[in-house]
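Question thread 4412

I'm putting together a teaching handout and wanted feedback from people who do this every day. The idea is simple: show students a protein as raw sequence, then show them the structure tokens that encode its fold, then repeat with a second protein so they can compare. Below is the first pair exactly as I plan to print it.
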Amino acid sequence: MTRTWFITGTSSGFGRHLTEQLLARKERVAATARRPETLDDLAVRHPDQLWRAELDVTDTTTLREVMDRAFADLGQIDIIVSNAGYGLFGAAEELSDEQIDRQIATNLTASIQLARAAIPHLRRQGHGRFIQIASIGGQVAFPAMSLYHATKWGVEGFWESAAAELAPFNIGVTLVEPGVARTNFGGASSVLGSPLPEYSDGPSGHLRDMLSGELPPLPAPGDPAKIAAAIIASAESTEAPLRLTLGSDAYALATTALRNRLEVLEAGRALAHSTDADDAFSASVSDGT
């Protein structure tokens, strides 16, 4: 059975790879981008499979109109992929108010509004799948990326909650957490704050030097084509996996971060219990865990 996918941010990166592979598999794709003409070559090769629309995901009104039009034109959409996003780099103090607002609007608010636009349609048709292209940056945090991490951690919290809300409607949710992949992230898709000399010898300055080519870049083990293939394969499963951690670096970073977080939590166990009211019942105390 041919499925239909709705994907944001299809002009490059994971969005482009997903679109190419899905069309090659004879699936239908509703592809949105700020510059849909970047898909002209695919439209020529797959005229009956590719539906296109111009979309800046930060324009909520247009986002809803495009979503409604896609369902009206295509009849059914099985999988929604929230992919549009970019990186904002620099110490928090180096970022402008406008840069902060734009980062949150693109990476976080747009993902939430995309879900809100699609959920009524998916409920009515009785099934669906959301795939959120998140980041291992939603499980770990590095200096000079505070706003990027804020959006990715926010996306994780939103979808973990929403997944439970949507399960009774046969709507699954998957958070994709890639590591560093060989896309244009950190290049054309990144934005830098205004440098302050006080940060030049710290992490913000070093990151800026890597992005400019003055220092060697971070290793990028992730193959975007393989990541796209793994995302598509995840949609074959009857039950949506809540998380897909993709890339050896992502796996290592997440493992270390979660172990360290658990160690800190365990070290504070006695303190946590000591702040309960004297008449509070704690199952964890009574059973000795």
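The second pair follows. I'd like the answer to focus on this one:
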Amino acid sequence: MTALRPFLATYGTALAGLAVVVVFALLKPVFLTPANFAIILKETAFLGILSLGFTLALVTAELDLSIAEVASLSAVVTGALVHAGFGATVAVAAGLSTGLVCGAANGLVVTRLRVPSLIATLGMAAIAKGLGFMITQGVAFVGRWPVSFTGLARGSIFGLSNLAWWLAGTAAACWVLLDWTRIGAHLRATGEAEEAARLAGVATGRMKRAGLTMCGLGAGLTGVLLAASLSSAAPNMAGDHFLYAIAAVLLGMTMFEPGRPNVPGTLVAAFSLKALGNGLVLVGAAYYVQDIVLGLVIVASVALSAGALGRAAFVEKLNFKRPS
């Protein structure tokens, strides 16, 4: 039993996710059909990319609560340019740049102005939402958009959806960055022991800016792909992904590297949450049951990873003596 405890601590949540899949597969055989699995994978792609960005910010002990609004603004900027007849390359570049600029602004406000990320990113969320409604005037951009743009999300390569490839590429890039590069080591050191890292020569302010900037870029990519997939762009289109993204990262902290934000954990958690929601719909559960279950997942995941989350959300937020 003693030898089993470390295994369960590391992989217990992942096994619970697998159990959820098995249960729904037994209750509803359609759950594991290729068509339904494609739906789950599509939803996981949007959530996974957004969550991976949040993971990079949380690694540095910072929170980005603007991810959904920034993703929506990026979609709106992209959609506005496509709707106006600009080429797909220009529109996509503008959407990604929007996320990048918003993330960089968050990083500068946090490290230069010494505003806690909890407050800074809430402010950014309000700004991004306002800009989205200003650009659209409250009316979503819709229409028959060029295949060169929509193909980013709707196409497939070797029989696998482009969205799955985008998710795989993003996850691989984040994993290599965090686990195989010096920058990744510095990002982790900044989040786990900022003062010690600073004394060791790590540019902790720069690392925090990098984490928040990459988080914004992840939100930008999510927005671009949402617009390409739906052929529409609205200022609140990514709103439903916000709590799921936070839940995916927190739940991911309970597996593989307990107590630490990590790429494999975030991916498994994102898939588990979307599989759970899909399964509940198939068994006929009321729409509000998903919200109740999501709330329970968030509370449970925070309880299981309270130490790391406490450092990220409270201790570091109260430390206003940040390096420039």
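Top answer:
Good format. For the second protein you could add a caption like this: The chain has one domain: 9-318. The longest strand covers residues 141-142.
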